[in-house]
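$ ./design --mode recover --in tokens.txt
reading tokens...
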């Protein structure tokens, strides 16, 4: 008799779980070779990776943030653009609102976040994080949702060899 009284509850639970599973967005994104270059002082760090969409539907990277919430730290999506002034090519960094991630299949390559191209710009990282072997970043995608990624930490050039303003959008 006890089974008959909980049967409606079990049936409702089964239907609820199947609805959740049908409406979940399993990630078909691959995040390859994530690493971060950090610098001494208050110079922003840069994050690099390759994103490959192996599913049948394109996605969009909307934002990134540190998994370990640190007061004042924030991450922006950036790209380099080329401009010609007086016959000379000048590259400058610009912030991006998002990065489209197309389905990766020939001839469409994956999206590369690399020096001189798209990258994550990490501002106000505390010295304690800069000394860690990895820094966890949460990437937020339009369809795939949030994906936690461990970025290997590499030390960059000495502060004396890097311009203080790391981005043309810095004022």
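writing sequence...
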């Amino acid at each position: 008799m006890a089974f008959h009284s909980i049967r409606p509850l079990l049936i409702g639970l089964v239907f609820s779980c199947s609805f959740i599973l049908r409406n979940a967005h399993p990630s078909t994104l691959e995040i390859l070779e994530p690493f971060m270059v950090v610098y001494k002082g208050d110079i922003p760090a840069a994050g690099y990776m390759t994103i490959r969409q192996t599913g049948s539907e394109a996605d969009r990277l909307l934002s990134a943030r540190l998994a370990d919430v640190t007061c004042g730290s924030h991450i922006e999506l950036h790209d380099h653009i080329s401009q010609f002034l007086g016959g000379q090519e000048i590259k400058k960094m610009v912030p991006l609102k998002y990065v489209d991630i197309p389905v990766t299949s020939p001839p469409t390559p994956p999206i590369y976040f690399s020096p001189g191209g798209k990258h994550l710009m990490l501002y106000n990282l505390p010295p304690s994080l800069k000394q860690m072997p990895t820094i966890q970043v949460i990437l937020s995608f339009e369809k795939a949702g949030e994906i936690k990624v461990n970025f290997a930490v590499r030390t960059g050039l000495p502060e004396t060899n890097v311009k203080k303003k790391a981005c043309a959008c810095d004022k």
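exit 0
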